[in-house]
Amino acid sequence: MTTATPTLGDRVLDTTRQGFDHESLTALLNGDVHAVRLAGFVRPDALDHLRKAFVGRQDHGPLATDPRFRRIGHAFSETSTDAGRGRYFDEARDNIDRLRDIASPYSYPADDLRLLLDEIWPAGASLLRRNGQAFFAGVARYQLAGVDLEPHTDNVGRNLPSDFDIRITRQLSVNVYLDVPERGGELQIWDDYPDESEYRDRSGDRVYGIDRAAVGEPALVITPRVGDAIFIDPRRVHAVAPSQDRPRITIGLFIGVTDPAESLKVWS
């Protein structure tokens, strides 16, 4: 079987599911590229079914941190208390089972991503766990028309309790695109790596993120394509432009690096 040779252009490493490898992920970790795009990650027959299953659904719930955003599944970034974390872990298995049922008889794309990461990383990949409790992985997000995902960074450390015994040194994210708007919905990435103290100062009293007026023009703008998977470093400032016509639907994972010799850890 032949594989597509990765190509580098405009700060994006373009490849496929077959061409994606350890070096592709390392290029992103090293900052050599701003994004890695796996074209056609979801195979055409599966994509047709998944779009019918996920597009147009109304049973998604509001994101706890901002109800303008909708999701199926409970993201760990929504938790801020011991009680909230307890609910998250209690619901983790049910949430992934629900999403697998929606995707059936095809595999859920988050499971495909987890397997791919396990295959390409020397030490494999596994679910992030705390005290024997597995994190949920594979949140489905619905960014409704007109909603701006403003410039921000993601850092799991903001939500972890002080006694968490795994130190995540680097964090990546990946989204699989099930639907994208005709106008808007572009992924925007800046050459900006604020540390946590600086990020809090720049966020001020906002619920999340940084004022667009304060960050200038992005270094890179990517127009996602249905069926693609795009990996980024979410500790760079990034954003998603508002959709002008219909919801942007993605399935996402975070990927944690604890040590180059250890397995990757995945969660949502």
Automatic annotation (TrEMBL):
<keyword id="KW-0560">Oxidoreductase</keyword>
<dbReference type="GO" id="GO:0016491">
    <property type="term" value="F:oxidoreductase activity"/>
</dbReference>
<feature type="domain" description="Fe2OG dioxygenase">
    <location>
        <begin position="133"/>
        <end position="257"/>
    </location>
</feature>
<comment type="similarity">
    <text>Belongs to the iron/ascorbate-dependent oxidoreductase family.</text>
</comment>
<keyword id="KW-0479">Metal-binding</keyword>
<dbReference type="Pfam" id="PF13640">
    <property type="entry name" value="2OG-FeII_Oxy_3"/>
</dbReference>
<dbReference type="InterPro" id="IPR044862">
    <property type="entry name" value="Pro_4_hyd_alph_FE2OG_OXY"/>
</dbReference>
<protein>
    <submittedName>
        <fullName>2OG-Fe(II) oxygenase</fullName>
        <ecNumber>1.14.11.-</ecNumber>
    </submittedName>
</protein>
<keyword id="KW-0408">Iron</keyword>
<dbReference type="InterPro" id="IPR005123">
    <property type="entry name" value="Oxoglu/Fe-dep_dioxygenase_dom"/>
</dbReference>
